[in-house]
Amino acid sequence: MTITPNTLALIGNTPLVRLKGPSEASGCDIYGKCEFTNPGASVKDRAALFIVEDAEERDAIRPGGTIVEGTAGNTGIGLALVANAKGYRTIIVMPETQSREKMDTLRALGAELVLVPAAPYSNPGHFVHTSRRIAEETPNAIWANQFDNIANRRAHIVGTAEEIWEQMEGRIDGFTCSVGTGGTLAGVGLGLKAKDETVCIALSDPYGAALYDYYAHGELRSEGSSVAEGIGQGRITANLEGAPVDTQFRVSDAEGMEWVTRLLGEEGLCLGLSSGINVAGAVALGRQLGPGKRIVTILCDTGFRYLSTLYNRAWLESKGLAVPPWLARD
Ligand code: PMP
């Protein structure tokens, strides 16, 4: 037990937990990297810290400056916390269709919210383009640009991958996760391959994303849809370029939710749906690699962020998803 010198040093160095149910289901040892223990309760704190510190090193932002990003979720929360700790302002641009909870959380942390109508990416009013324009028009401001700023994946090459390698004592056969920006998959993939090129790196892709087809057949194509937040990508972002993907799985929301429910009910872990999709992918990877293999995946964020959705009976029923027995009680 040690004393951490400041709050930013609380980001990273997350625990790795052996997951009993997924290990039994696959005949392998499956481990989850507990990213929900970061101060902002998600994996995105790492990218937020690296993006801000990269801008500082390039002199792109000076004391009292402003960080602008288009995001509705975990990246905004991470950026707001990092900005507070370093004395910057945060402006977060989000579509007005996002949940009330997310807006309340970002406001509670001190971020200034700019709400824009939902629009396709090709529309200049899309929240990502709007955030870039606001950053350009604001003095002493940076645009975090998490999708194409590779300071994001560097956080996972030098942080997450190193930690996993040490925690696994260099004995790891496979790694899998899903993709939002691709920072985690590409960064951990590159970091682990640099240690041992035989580690199998697998994409776990939700329906509605185009990457499964890209890695399987070389074509960006999507089918279906997913209610998972924070994941589901339709293009090769700068963070994804050169990601060493060996194999890929498509995971349904129902499969992901089954693990979300089992991990809570049987192991006491309250997680979001991207974590469930990752665990389902890890079980699939374990079955592909064979018994006894050691596989790591990412537990991306806390389930407490989804009390009105993933942990709400009426919402689950409205999406046609199974309701856990403890939520079905009257
Ligand atoms: N899960 C959740 C809940 C997220 O918010 C994100 C970030 N968008 C991811 C997974 C994916 O992480 P990455 O951006 O590194 O691909």
Tags for this entry?
4-stranded parallel β-sheet; 12 helices; 41% helix; binds 4'-deoxy-4'-aminopyridoxal-5'-phosphate; TrpB-like_PALP_sf; pyridoxal phosphate; transferase; cysteine synthase activity
From the alpha carbons, calculate the radius of gyration and give it in angstroms: 19 Å
Small-molecule binders here are: 4'-deoxy-4'-aminopyridoxal-5'-phosphate
Q: What topology, given as strand order, has the largest sheet?
A: 1-2-10-7-8-9
How many H/I helices? 12
N/C terminus separation? 44 Å
Secondary-structure class: alpha/beta
What percent of residues adopt helix (DSSP H or I)?
40-55%
Largest sheet: 6 strands, mixed
Report mean pLDDT, rounded to a whole number: 96
Shape descriptor: globular
Enzyme class: transferase
Cofactor: pyridoxal 5'-phosphate
Pfam family, one: PALP
Keywords: Pyridoxal phosphate, Transferase
